[in-house]
Amino acid sequence: MSLSERLPDAESEPLIRNVSDTARWVAVYRARETERPDAVFRDPFARRLAGERGELIAKSMPLGGDTGWPMVARTYLIDEFVRAEVAKGADAVINLAAGLDTRPYRMQLPPSLLWVEVDLPEILSHKEEILRCEKPVCALERIRLDLSDVAARREVFDQLGRRSKKALILTEGLLTYLNAEEVAGLAQDLGAPASFHSWILDMASPALLRMLQKRQAPNLKQAAPFKFAPDEGPKFFAKYGWNPVEVRSLMKTAGRIKRLPLFLRPFSWLPDTEASRRSRPWSGVCIFEKRQI
Predict the structure, then answer these.
(1) Could you give the C-alpha distances from 46 to 18, 22, 102, 257, in angstroms and in order?
(2) Angle formed at CA 225 by CA 77 and CA 81, multiple of 5 degrees
(3) 16 within 8 A of 57, measured Cβ to Cβ
(4) Band (281; pLDDT cuts 50, 70, 90)
């Protein structure tokens, strides 16, 4: 166990200290999927990155083993979207709140692709320590930055915008921990660089947010509460210059890849429409393109 992975003393600090620790939790589900003989993706680094803290966090979540399918479906969908955007000419991927994501190590990507991870110093240092002997498949850079520092992130976005011609933004698992005003500000800032072309994000409906807030483990609710679930769904981003190109349901995807628990399968057969996304518990992955002026 690394120095950065020392487990908490029950009397000194909580298991989930801040939002960065949720990356360890998510890595557990990637590790479990990787270890299946019929895995829909493989992340050979996830188990090491999650560590014992990640396993303990996963075990502390309500519903036990039934909580992993959305994470598996989300990873699977984002992998698909990244491949498609790179095939269409994206020359850079800017991964905000990158956490313990390992796509630049585990996916087949062109060596010329620039992949930039932006996150807090602690989580990036933990990742670097674990992966220090591994080689990424493309050009990988890391920027230590608190994204809530608006002036600093605008400067970073401007610099990265000048280094790419057609950049893809990725914010996996980030927006749910922000409020609507913070998401709006981020959307505006991402719209400023001319080369920032497309954006992959995941989001939930208000009905799902209410359900998750009731079921959240107390420690998670205190350290990293869920916040963002706009009534207008993906259309929330239109007023900031981002138009949805494709919206994919996590439940329908989990059903398609045979990861949905048996009791939920009938729900995956229901229509997935704009109206149903507003009225029912729903979550999905969306890809947006910036509106050209």
Answers:
(1) 20, 13, 8, 20
(2) 10
(3) yes
(4) very high
pLDDT tens digits, one per residue of 162-182: 999 999 999 999 999 999 999
CA distances to 90, 216, 285 from 186, rounded to whole Å, are 21, 26, 18
Domain-by-domain residue ranges, the chain? 10-65, 68-290
170 within 8 A of 85, measured Cβ to Cβ: no
How would you label 169-187 residue by residue, b for 16+ Cβ within 10 Å and e otherwise? Answer: bbbbbbbbbbeeebbbbbb
Range 110-120 burial, b when 16+ CB lie within 10 A, else e: eeebbbbbbbb
- What global pTM score does this model have? 0.91
| Cα distance between residue 81 and residue 286, in whole Å | 9
- Residue range 68-290 forms a domain whose CATH class is alpha beta
